[in-house]
Specification:
Elements (H helix, E strand, L loop, with lengths): L5 H15 L7 E2 L15 E6 L4 E5 L5 E2 L4 H13 L1 H7 L13 H5 L11 H9 L6 H16 L8 H10 L1 H12 L7 H12 L2 E2 L1 H12 L14 H14 L5 H7 L4 E3 L4 E6 L3 E6 L2 E2 L6 H14 L5
Antiparallel strand pairs: 1-9, 2-3, 2-8, 4-5, 6-7, 7-8
Bound molecules: 6-diazenyl-5-OXO-L-norleucine.
6-diazenyl-5-OXO-L-norleucine binds next to loops.
């Protein structure tokens, strides 16, 4: 990896933003959660949080968006801390699926009937069901306060409209969750588990928040500014490994070859990138490809990685 000059990185990030902004035209904003339809497909933003503390940003960095599947990394880290590895991996596997993020197919044909990994919807719902807390409110509050700590932003909350919109239309996620209840992957009230899951997906952030969160993972679980341990190193390591193998769904293999950065996308168009020992990256561009990953976001990361030699491979 090249030594990073902050002023050059700033200049080149602005150039890349300009180059990749039109790429959004080749994608489609997510529609299956109606509230996400309102996003502007021409928006593109990138923030980089270097572990040395510098902030490099370009594009529409003031836009706020919901975490969606990026939140799955956060709840995985929490479940590993709450219950330990053995308990988490009794309920979810460690393998990529090769299927879309909301697919039910493998859940039915695999024995035992547990989700293949925590980055697909079924796996993430199962992980959320493991979180400690006496009721849905306390669980949501715990997730929010963990996200606020990771991002060092006490103002982070969740978007009520996006939450309601998903709540009202989430029949597929409901089907996954009830299926898992039947096979004892999920215990307790399914609607309560789903309520926490929809709220974690609706947590609202900007690109800088995402970059800051990524930087904690890049820094092996420690706050890059204060050195405070936010999660144990082995928890950060498991999360980063899942980001490589499953973070971009059934495009994770291609992304690993072309970009080579542990990353997690969400259907809002966000991508969290983690360059170990170096930087956290937050990207936003809401027009998605057919697998649910941001078109302009993925291409921008590809250019950035090639330019600065960021691939971990
Ligand atoms: O459960 C869902 O379908 C959404 N709340 C999150 C899915 C998602 O972000 C998939 N991403 N690419």
């Amino acid at each position: 990896m090249e030594t990073i000059s902050v002023s050059r990185l700033q200049h080149e990030l602005e150039e890349l933003l300009h180059e990749h902004r039109p790429d959004g035209q080749e994608g489609q904003v997510a529609e299956y959660i109606p509230a996400l339809k309102q996003a502007n497909p021409t928006h593109l933003a990138a923030s980089i949080c270097l572990l040395a503390g510098e902030q490099v940003q370009a594009g529409d960095v003031d836009i706020r968006f919901t975490m969606q599947s990026m939140s799955k990394v956060i709840t995985l880290a929490m479940a590993l801390m709450d219950c330990g590895e053995a308990c988490v991996f009794e309920k979810v596997g460690m393998e990529p699926t090769g299927d879309p993020f909301n697919s039910i197919m493998k859940l039915e044909i695999m024995r035992p009937n547990k989700p293949l990994n925590p980055m697909i919807n079924a796996g993430a719902i199962a992980v959320t069901s493991l979180l400690h807390g006496s009721g849905t409110e306390e669980k949501v509050e715990r997730i929010l306060s963990f996200v606020r700590r990771l991002a060092r932003n006490p103002a982070i909350g969740f978007n009520e409209d996006v939450y309601r919109s998903e709540q009202e239309t989430a029949d597929l996620n409901r089907a996954l969750a009830y299926f898992m209840k039947q096979y004892e992957v999920i215990e307790g009230d399914v609607e309560d588990v789903l309520d926490v899951y929809f709220k974690q997906c609706a947590i609202e952030v900007n690109c800088w928040d995402v970059a800051r969160i990524g930087a904690v993972f890049a820094n092996r679980g420690r706050d890059p500014e204060t050195g405070e341990v936010i999660m144990p190193e082995h928890v950060a390591k498991i999360c980063k490994t899942f980001m490589v193998t499953c973070g971009m769904y059934n495009a994770s293999g291609e992304f690993a070859i072309r970009v080579g950065i542990p990353a997690k996308s969400g259907v809002s168009g966000g991508i969290m990138g983690v360059v170990p020992h170096c930087m956290g990256i937050g990207i936003y561009s809401p027009a998605l490809d057919e697998k649910g990953n941001s078109v302009a976001g993925v291409r921008l990361l590809q250019s950035l990685s090639a330019r600065w030699g960021l691939s971990i491979f």
